Structure formats: structure tokens, C-alpha cells
Batch of 2 targets.
Target 1
Amino acid sequence: MSETHDPQLLKGVLSVLLLHLLAERESYGYEVVQRLQAAGFADVLEGSVYPALTRLQREGRLETRLVPSASGPARKYYRLTAGGHEALAGGLGAWSRHIAAVDAVLSRPLPPSENGD
Amino acid sequence: MPHTITWYDRLRIERLVWSLDQQLYDLPRVQRIATRREVRANLLEAARDVGTREALRGVGGSRRLAEQFLTAEFGDNPRHTWIGAAYAAALTPLLLNFFLAEAANAFQSGVTATDPHATGVFTWSGVSWLQSAVTYTFNDGTATGHGGGWTPLAYLLWLVITVGFGRLWRLRLRRRPAVAPA
């Protein structure tokens, strides 16, 4: 799956996506990008993900630890804090409500167009 | 297939990392260093994975990346800039002193142009509002001077320029907590 995504839509859900991925297992920055791309967000740029991780850390939703790497500099692993788990639960609820509201509108039948198409 | 990182690749990565660093001077020092190290580690990892060109493309350039890091730290609201304030605070006295000194030199040159062997005490009131009076003592055309210091208004102007360039009025009394270094 390699469809592109609306950057504005993606921006709105990036935090929840990151929290969910990191709730599954802790990861370092580039690994998070790889996991996002493997999940179908092929057009997600590292330049968006790294600052988003920093913001979530500043907000107290992520904590970090440095892990030495055999292939280069130490990696900074991110994992959720208790506040991060709360934020994820809240984000999932908001996302569900959002989907339900959008679906409710988009599933309404459209009137036939005037030119008969 | 893993890519080999050459010295040229490392130089390209370091160029981006240090260019980014120069644009993050408004962040606390510890946080700026942590950001620099993290971006470098991730770029090296990405370069090994997809090649340096693609890895650098992925971060979207140092200016954009710096803007996103600053937005992540300070939010979307207009923000102050310490580096701008520092430049203004350093450069304003240099420029102001240069122009005031040139004005005083012009007065001194005027005296010696009138009389190359001038002797006596000559006082110039200085640049209005910005400078105190300058007194030159001439002895056969050779002058020694004193005075010409800044007035309180000049100091106020310095402060206003520093605050203006740094947009320091945007500083909030309650600072956001800084990111703990990993």
C-alpha cells in the first residue's frame, strides 16, 4: 500500500499514530519512520516525525533512553509515559467519534444530478 | 541493500546537522545538542538504509526541519528569538559608536581645516539627544578629546532595538518545561 495521504489530514493524526506505534513497542526515530512507511504512510517524511516526537516528549507523553548501537551513534529510544497512554486513549476516542461523524455524512445518498449522470 | 557511508556522505550529513544546529540557537543548549545528536544518528541510519541523497531528502532541508523543531518547542504562536536579540545587542553599540565617532572626527577635522595650527579648547555639543558634549583641546593643531558618551536616550534606543529585533515582548513569564536530554 503506497497511496499518498493528504498532509493536512496526516498532520492531525500523526500524534495518535506515533503514540500507538510506540505503545506497541519502543523505537528510535528512524525506526518509527520505517514503521509508519511499512504501515502505508510512504510519504511521511522524517522531517515531520522527529519534531513531532520531540513535541510529544516535551508534553510529557514520551520518555527516552539512549541505547548504544553497533552500527553508529547511540540511538534515542522513545516509549510512552502514563500520560502518553492517557493521551492515546483520548486520541483513539476522538478519532472514533470523528470517523463516525464523517461516515454519517458521507454515507448519505446523493440526489440524482440534473444532467442525469 | 545497505549502502556504504563514505566520507563525502558524512560531510553532507554533517553539513545538514550543523546548519540545523545554527538555526536552533533559541533552544536551550542541552536540548540543542540532544537534537543535533539524534538527527545525526537517524540520518546515518537512514543513509545506510536508503542512501544519503534519499536520507537528506527525507528530512526536507535544515531550514524546514529547524522550523518544525522550534514549532514543536514553542508552539505555532509567534515567538521571540534570543539569537536575534543577541545580534542586535552586539551590533547596535558598534554601529552607534562608529557614527558618533565619525561625527566627532568631522568636528575635529573642521577645526584643523580652519586653522591647521589651532590652539585652545573647543567644545562640540555632540549629536543631539544621543551624545554628551565633546571637548577637544588643541595644541598647535594636535587635538586630544574627551566626552562624547552615550546619553540615557542612547541606552534606551539600544534597549528598544534589542527588544525589537529579538521580539522579546513575546516572552511569557511562565516558560514551558524544557525537554529532558536523553
Target 2
Amino acid sequence: MTATTVSTQATEDKSSSGAAQTRAPAGPRTVLTTSMTYALLALIAIIYIFPFLIQIATSFKTDNDAAANPVSLIPANWTTATYQTLFGGGLAFPTWAMNSVIVTVFVTIGRVLFCSMAGYALARLRFRGRGLLFAALIAVMAVPAVVLLIPKFLVVNTLGIYDSYAGMIVPLLVDAAGVFIMKNFFESIPMSVEEAAHIDGAGIFRTFWSVVLPMSRPALITLVILAFQGSWNELSHFVVSAQDPDLYTLTKGVATLAAGGQGQAQQFPLKLGAAALMTIPVAVMFFIFQRQIMNTAEGAEKG
Amino acid sequence: MTTRAPRPAAIALATATVLAMSACGGGGFDEGSDPTGQASGPAELTILIGSSGPAETDAVTAAAQAWSEESGNTATVTAAQDLPQQLSQGFAAGSPPDVFYVSSDTVASYAENGSLEPYAGDLSNVDDFYPNLREAFTVDDQFYCAPKDFSTLSLIINTDSWAAAGLTDEDIPTSWDELSAVAEQLTTPDQVGLTTSTEYQRLGAFMAQAGGGLVTDGTATADSSENVEALEYVQSVVELGAWSFAADLDSGWAGEAFGNARAAMTIEGNWMIGAMSADYPDINYQVVPLPEGPAGAGTLTFTNCWGIAAQSDNIEAAKDLVEFLTSSEQQLEFASAFGVMPSVESAADQWRADNPDFVAFLDQADVAVAVPNQVGVSDVVADLNAQLEGLSSGDPQAILDSAQSNLEAIL
Amino acid sequence: MSSRRSRDAGGIRGREAAAGWLFTAPALVILGLFLALPILMAAWVSVSDWRGQGSPFSSSVGFVGADNYRGILSAESGLPARDFGTALRNNFWYVVLVVPLQTILSLFLAVLVNRKVLRGRGFFRTAFYFPSVTSSVAIVIVFLFLFSGSGAVNKSLSWLGVNGPNWFADPRGVAHVVLGVFGIDGAPALLSDNGFLSLSWWEWLAGPSVAMSALIMLAVFTTSGTFMLLFIAALQNVSGEVQEAALLDGASGWQRFRFVTLPLLRPTLFTVLTLGLIGTWQVFDQIFVGTQGGPAKTTITPAYLSYTSSFLNNRWGQGAAIAFILFAIIVVLTLIQRWVLRERGVPKRKRYVPDAAVVGTTR
């Protein structure tokens, strides 16, 4: 997804060349190659999709059925025990889900707002220190996330927001890459509209809010997708920023479920069911924004 | 585009933030903690437990409730998802729970870095604890924390498989040879005779029966011939096909393989009682002492204590709570709720009367040895366990040699 | 430069400056607090004897110089050094296998899917890309199930007459297993007596364990979709040029790909390799959720070891030191790779931009 966003901009100007395709006449050799390609693609597609089908099917199986028939897509005896345990049992699954929603909503809003503001300033506003800021931005983007695992805990702890929603949300509110994407986008749109707004006497913030942002829908959607997916799937930050079971997110909760413990059976249907449920929101988002995500390719083809 | 000079910029930025932070008084960890370790008024205690399941959580919660009503304080119980991690984050964050489980193999490292209050010597029931349990929580001659209960390893037998193989009570193994013989007899195409995990926490029982151990009187003895003999015995039964490790039976732990009837015998502790009735109520089983080895009887014991954080504001109240929780009556409540054995001798007879089927666990208390508790031993044991995973095809001497050199490095 | 202009233009520029700082302030504060500052704090912890009690800046915490670094690098310190060596070995094999495999597979998928005559392109793209959007936690659970001893993978292998290993419980090194097939079971003295970072060369040569191989497949499975999209975009950029070149010399499909398309894909290839390298040296989630370092420590990685040293064993200094060494490894390898794959004649700026943006979002 990430990749898409970035390359969209790189592709746009050249896309027309890709459209100039001539179709080769279909000789017997081409037919053979084509059907082989289809067979190969179909095989790979099955390998890519099958795990998810098994996952869903197994979540409706009993533990023994899952162990005995790991490949079958039809449960020998259907059971919704998994989902009853997840929603009615001793597990705090609904709490995890709620925490994931809270964090994701705040992080997504925060990133869209802060990244676009910073991106706009870096792209359009001239002020002393802008170059320095941009350089710093590039520098922090190069730091691998795992290196920050321990220190992030130290900072969150020192600031007194350890074990709270604030500690889980605030550090994720800005994403350097998001700023970068927005800066690139703002640089690609023409100045003229803003200049017109300036002449009409609109202030900088007003111009940004009522003129620039509404024009930035594609980039903002990209940012929403990235922020949503990133915060929904985030694990390591939540591991180090909180320990209260009431603050577990889906990733953290399901991860502990997966690790199991002494005296716990493997319970694959339960784990797979939990994993399937936590995939639903990103899957829904994926299918809603599929066009946007695949934009690079489609856009280029249609020229 | 500025592609150069990112480094000075980042440093400048970071320095500025550090300055800003220290200016507004970061690092206020010690605020609010009373140096005497005792706040006035009713205390609010937090208890963090590493629970084996809902039964244990509920029982501890009920006990804390009872104490709260009796003492006028409040105690809240939280079941940890990952106890060591939550504890160390709590300590580093300056907000550890007041009372928490500490296992005997980690007590020394918590004691060493000053996390634990050494309170247990002050308890009124201090002499009632089993001596070897007191020993397990004693570091540098300080009895740090009160043992909350204990478990030992026993041989668990599926009685239906036993009968199906034509075995009777006469055949209950009392020696290594007898154990491998019955394991072989119990092995069928669907079921292996014996299963355990590969950990030291199970196989170590055989080292004890051979007269070995990882640490003897403070010196490393991991590479002793007794230990090699024990592991070679294990290997020989594995080679017969009569002993499979739990992971090879697709099981998270040996109890699961036993409960799913993939194995006819296993070696586990008291926690099996709860697991069997909760997860595998249809399996009939009996519990017998482990067989004797070349050096006689031996098993391992596992125990946790009630640790009290040295940083706690309510140490006195916490001590009162621990005294309540370790009383004979309360421990018998726990025992009936989740199968553990009381850590105090005064409760032994009552426990035997209550649990006639499981007396084998308690009968072995005298021959049970604890996992060594020196600082760093838990890492060595973790490394040994990692190597023991390759025991079926590995060289016992080489495995123990590496444990020996790791132990020598820390002792 | 900007200062001179601001003097010229007066008021508007002044307002712009204020607005500029105002607009960037949230990003500045948050990135400074949670990206820049942590690095400094960790740098201090890595040279201190802080044991996880109270503040690392309190007066009782002392400076110990390079002790923590020595503790994980010098063979004399025993277990911690051995664990670190093992973690590097494990991650090394992971990188060496995942990076080429994911690059080749994603390029292959992109070429297949990019064929103009193909029907159902959208479907295939979606299918190949979907694993990339799901959370690592969910995918790991699925793989744990698929690769369990009697799981779907072994079941499928058994139809082919192959007796699959008990994947996630099998600590044997793949290279050792292969050598074993040829009757080489032990190490020559030269390899077993000498070594690097507390591991003998024979242990370094073990290859990834069977368990790690399953994680390698998982990584390839989940990343190939993203990289495929990158390659598709690049292919569409170059397809016109390819067409022309093909018309000129009537080259075969493979020749066209090898001598025309591939060189044109170079910038994308560079991006994919860089991202792959950076990402694979940071494996954490999969280990945390799936294997916790086992079996037999064959899946511990520096990132995971850094976490366990600090959060589970209270050796915060060593944990921070591991993180810094990992940081250094990533930086050095990226620079080396940049140098090896450097190209002349393409303006620096052009390939720099997408590169950097994508780097940032892989975390």
C-alpha cells in the first residue's frame, strides 16, 4: 500500500506511454503460453488464498476436528464455540476490539491532521529552519522501529503516560513517512488556487483548511489507509507502552492468546477465529479502497 | 532538496527536546513514595498473579476480598498475561504491584536488583513452612518471601490404557527398568507409552533420581556422570519408541498429549488435577510416585512465593495480607480450588484427607528438589532447555558440558 | 536564504514563518519526543548499569563504559554473548534467504500479472496483495496452524509421498540436514574449533532451522504482494521502451526481459532490495507471537533478544546495546548495498525520493 502511494506520483507523468500497446496476433504458441500462464497464476492464487479459507473454516471446527482434518474446508460438525468463547467467555476479546478501535480512530485522525499540516508547511510556507526540519524528518525516517522499542518505553514512562491510552496513542500520532507523502503531494498541485485565495484575503490557515485540504482528497485517502492499517496492525508499541489487561488491543490480546501458556491446549480453532475477526476491518478497508490501493497499476493502464 | 546534513539536525532537535524535558522536571519516579514504606489510612493493595486459569484467579480474588473485609483495606487482584514482562515494566515504571507471584528460580535476580522486600522472616507462621521451601526463597541468608504453595512431579497414568495393556497395580513402575518396560507395553500405533516435554523442569527429575543435579552446594555440577546417565536413560527409552516428547505429538504441553490420549503416561505436577477435570474430564487416570533411579527416589518441586515490592507504599498491610493468604485454612481453600499443595506443614494431614487420589504428590515432598535459585540460573536453564529440545538426536555429554560452562560463568 | 527573502517581503513572510512553525509544531514535538529523544535515552542506558529500578537518570545509576557491549560481544561473558551470536546467525540466514526470494517472487508475479492479454488481472493482483494488509499477528497464527506437525502443509506433502517435519518444533539447521543426507554428520575440526561471536563456524553454517524456514516462507508470503505492486508500477513505466526495443531487434521474450526490462527496473529493484534488507533485520512480531525464540533458540533474532534481555531479564543495558548494534548493522549494510548497486547516469534525486518515503512506512 505504502509502495503504491509513492509510486503513483512517479508513474503519473509517464502513464500514457504504457497505454500504447500493440497486441500480438494469437498464434498456437501464444495460446499455449497464455494457458500455461493462467494455470500458473491460478496455482499461485490458490496458494495465496487457501490459508485464509482454511483459517475461516477451522474457526468453525472443534479442536479434535481441526487436528484430524487440517485441510478440509468443511467442518465435520459445525460449531460456533469459538465465537461464543470470544464474545461470551472469559476472554476480554470485546475489550481488546474496543481498544483497537479507540487507538485506530485517534491515530488516524491525528496523522491525517498533523501530517498534512506539517507537509503543507514544508511544501508551501517559507520560513527559516524549513530545510533543517526536512533534513531531520528524513533522518528519523531511517531509524528502524525495533531499535526504538526499549527507549520508547523509557520516554513514555518518564512522561508519566505509561499504561494509559495517551501512552498508546500520542507516540503514534505523527508518522514521518506521512509528512513526506503529504509534502510531495502538495508540491505536485498548482499554486494558482492558493494564490487566488490569498488575493481574496484568506489567511494561511483558512486557505489550508478550506481550499487546499478539499483538493487533497486522494492523498488524504492514502494517508487514512496507511494510518488505519498501521495502527490497527501495530503490536510492538503496545507491548512496551502499556501492561494493564484493560488496555490490551487486538494485536496484543490475540498475540498472548497465540502464545498460550502452561497447562493450555493448543486450541487452534479459537486462535484462528480470533485472528480472522481481527482481520475483518482491514479486509473491509482493503476492499472499499481497492481502487485507490491498486491505483498505480490501473491508472497507468487506462492512461 | 536537502539530502545532506541530516545528522546535526537530528542531534540539535533531540538536544532541544531533552533540555525542554529536563526543564519541566522529568524523571519524577520517587514522588509520593513514603520513605517508611507505609502510607496512613486504609491501604489499597494491588496483587499481580500468574494464574493457571479462572479457578485460580477466582480463588485468589475471593481470598483478597475476604482479607479486605476483615482488615478494612482493599486488595485488587489482576491476572497477568505475561507475569515476568509485566513485573519488570512495573518496576521500571516505578509502579510495581504491591504483592505478586515470584517463582523460586527468579527470586534471586529480583532480590539482587532490590525489587523485593525481605519480609518473610517476620511472619508469625514462619516456622510452619517446609524447610526446603524456605530454602528456595532464601538468598544470602535472607528469607525473602513466603512460599504460597508448591507442586511436585508425579507419574500420571491413563488407567484405561493401563488395563487394556493387561497391566495391574502390581506393575506400577518403581525403577527405571520397570518404567521403560511398561512404557513399551503401553505403546500402540495410536498411543505412545510416555510423554513429557524436553525441559529440565521434567527431565531434571531423572537427574535427581540418578543422584545428580545442576548445582550442588553452590558449585556447578551439570556435567556430572549422574546427569549424563539420566539423559542417556531418557534417550534409550525414546529410541525404543516408548517415549515421545510433547512437541512431537503436536501438543503445547505433555498434559495435552495425555488428555488427547496420544500418550498413556506423563510426568507432570499438581496442575494436572485442574487441567484434567477442566479440559479432559473423560480420561480416567491415577497419580503414582515417580520410579526410583540408581540413587533412589527423587523428583522436582516447583513453588512460587508472595513477593512484596520494596517500592510498595503499603508494606505492613501487604505483610498482613500474605500472613492471611499463607494461613493453613486459606491454603486449603486454594488447594481445593486449583489443586496445589499447602506450603505449611500444619495443613498436610487435612490435605491428604481431602485428596486421597493425589497423595503421591505430597508423599514425594521429602525427596523433591527445587530448581537452583542462584542469580542467572534461570537463563542457564533456559539455554539448557533449548539444547534439550535436540536431545533425541543429541549428545547428552555435550549438552551438559555447555550447561556446565554456562553455570561456571555465573556461580 | 529564506531570511533574506523574509526581510524583503515583510509582513506576509513573518506570518508565514509563524504559521510554518505552528503547522509543523505537532509533528516536531511528537517525532522529537518519541523518535529522537528515545535514541539519546537508549544511548545512555546502553552505557549504564541501570537494572530496571526507577529512573535510569537517578544518581544511583552508574556509567559503565562499553561493559554492556563487551558483555554481548566478548566470548568470555558466556551466555549473553552466545545468545547474541546465535541471534545474529539466525537473522543472517533469514535475511540471506528472504530478501532474494521475495524480490524474485514479487518480480515474477508482477511480470505475470502485467501481461496485457491477461483476463482477471484485478483478481490476481488482489489475491497476491491481500496477505500484505493483514496483521502479522493474524498471519503468524495461520502459519502456526498450517505448519503444525499434522497440519495442512504436512498433509499436502504426504499426498506427494513426503514425510514433512514438525516445522515449528524442529531446531535442525537446514544446511546440516542437507549435509547429513550426504553422510556429513559432524564438523571438521577446522570448523568446530574456530568461530566468530561465540559460535563455531560449523554452527554458523547450520543454515536456518526448519522452524526458521517456515518463518522465511511466511515473510515471503506476506511481503511479495507489496513489492509486486512496486514492480507493476515500474513495468508500466518501461513497457513502451521495451516494446520499441523489441521491434528493433526481434529478441526473444527472455532476452527482452533480461537485457531491456531488467536494467530499466534497476531503481525499483534497488528500492525493493533496500526495503527488504531493512525490514528483514528487524523481525520481531513473528517471533514474539509465533515461536518466542524456540525451538532451541533457533529463531531468536537481535530485535527479539533486545526485547527479552530488557523486559524479561532486566538487563536493560545489554538490551539497549543490542539495539544499537542492530542499528549499526542496518545502516552499514544499507550503505554497502547502495554502493554495490550504485548506478551512474541516473540523477540522484530521482531515485532518492520514492525510496525514502517507502522506507519510512515499512515499520
